[in-house]
């Protein structure tokens, strides 16, 4: 394996900041087109614009700094990331940054998924962090089509007090979850492991209940992760050298690189089987404590 840093967010998305309007963000991300399954003689839906406007308002309520906007799977998925300013540092200068990810995976854009994650600066590898927050929120800025005039239902494009309070609580739950993860990460960084423990751990992480034909692939992935444990970017830091934290970061590094294209790698890392691999890796690492 060629041990190089994966590009930030697999090289997908564009950098933005809070000074831009939702329309400007949409234009910069090349998402300023209309989505519609409605016959052409009827008004089209401005779903992407309404969704970006919702994302921006959501982040503003939680004092999260919007950084990146992008799309996946032919723009079926529209996503954006914001910094939570809930960062932490492990021994040897191993920096982790906390983020909130909002994603709409359906063209109607009515349901928004909420995810919290950390980004490891040394390798640009990602790990989703479980929280007590609800995993979805309704896109209240999404206007529904009506068969009679007016074609678009009127709805407020501002959060009411209840929505502001719920949004603030949700984002605070994410910050709390990342803070708790930071404490676990410190313990993992202090837990020394042996080569045998590392081999057993990787085998267990990538072992799945699947067809025999997949066994060779699983073994290859486990070996790649074991190689990453020794040689991947950031593994030379004090926090990762022969530690349980190093085992986990080797898996996140490997899992984020599984996939044929940048699009598929990022989709699988956030929403697909590679996200499950990393979740399992975290659970197994904590069992080593």
Structural class: alpha+beta
Report the portion of residues in β strands.
15-25%
Low-confidence stretches: 35-45, 148-154
Shape: globular
Q: Give the proportion of residues in helices.
A: 40-55%
Series of H and E elements: EHHEEEEEEEHHHHHH
Instruction: Compute the number of helices.
Output: 8
Rg from alpha-carbon coordinates: 21 Å
User: Main beta sheet, described?
Assistant: 8 strands, antiparallel
Number of strands: 8
Total of domains: 2
Average predicted local confidence, pLDDT: 89
> How many angstroms separate the termini?
29 Å
Describe the structure.
This protein has 289 residues and is an alpha+beta fold. It is 40% helix and 17% strand. It has eight helices and eight strands. It has helices spanning 22-28, 47-61, 161-190, 195-206, 215-231, 244-255, 262-270, 273-287; strands at 14-15, 65-72, 77-83, 88-90, 94-104, 111-120, 125-128, 136-138. A hairpin with a 6-residue loop joins strand 5 (94-104) and strand 6 (111-120).
Please supply descriptive tags for the structure shown above.
289 residues; alpha+beta; 8 helices; 17% strand; globular
Furnish the topology, listing elements before pairings.
Elements: E1 14-15, H1 22-28, H2 47-61, E2 65-72, E3 77-83, E4 88-90, E5 94-104, E6 111-120, E7 125-128, E8 136-138, H3 161-190, H4 195-206, H5 215-231, H6 244-255, H7 262-270, H8 273-287
Antiparallel strand pairs: 1-2, 2-3, 3-5, 4-5, 5-6, 6-7, 6-8
């Amino acid at each position: 394996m060629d041990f190089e840093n994966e590009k930030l967010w697999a090289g997908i998305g564009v950098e933005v900041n809070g000074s831009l309007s939702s329309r400007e963000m949409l234009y910069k991300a090349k998402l300023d087109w209309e989505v519609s399954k409605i016959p052409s003689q009827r008004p089209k839906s401005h779903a992407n614009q309404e969704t970006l406007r919702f994302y921006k308002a959501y982040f503003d309520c939680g004092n999260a700094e919007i950084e990146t906007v992008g799309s996946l799977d032919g723009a079926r998925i529209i996503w954006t990331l914001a910094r939570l300013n809930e960062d932490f540092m492990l021994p040897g200068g191993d920096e982790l940054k906390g983020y909130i990810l909002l994603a709409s995976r359906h063209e109607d854009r009515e349901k928004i998924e909420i995810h919290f994650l950390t980004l490891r600066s040394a390798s640009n590898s990602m790990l989703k962090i479980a929280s007590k927050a609800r995993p979805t929120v309704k896109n209240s800025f999404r206007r529904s089509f009506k068969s009679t005039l007016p074609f678009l239902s009127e709805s407020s494009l501002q959060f009411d007090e209840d929505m502001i309070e719920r949004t603030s609580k949700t984002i605070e739950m994410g910050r709390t979850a990342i803070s708790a993860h930071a404490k676990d990460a410190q313990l993992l960084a202090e837990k020394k492991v042996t080569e045998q423990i590392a081999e057993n751990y990787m085998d267990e992480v990538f072992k799945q209940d699947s067809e025999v034909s997949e066994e060779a692939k699983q073994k290859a992935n486990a070996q790649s992760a074991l190689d990453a444990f020794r040689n991947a970017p950031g593994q030379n830091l004090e926090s990762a050298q022969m530690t349980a934290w190093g085992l986990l970061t080797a898996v996140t590094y490997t899992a984020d690189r599984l996939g044929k294209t940048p699009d598929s790698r990022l989709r699988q890392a956030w929403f697909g089987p590679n996200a499950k691999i990393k979740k399992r890796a975290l659970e197994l690492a904590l069992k080593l404590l």
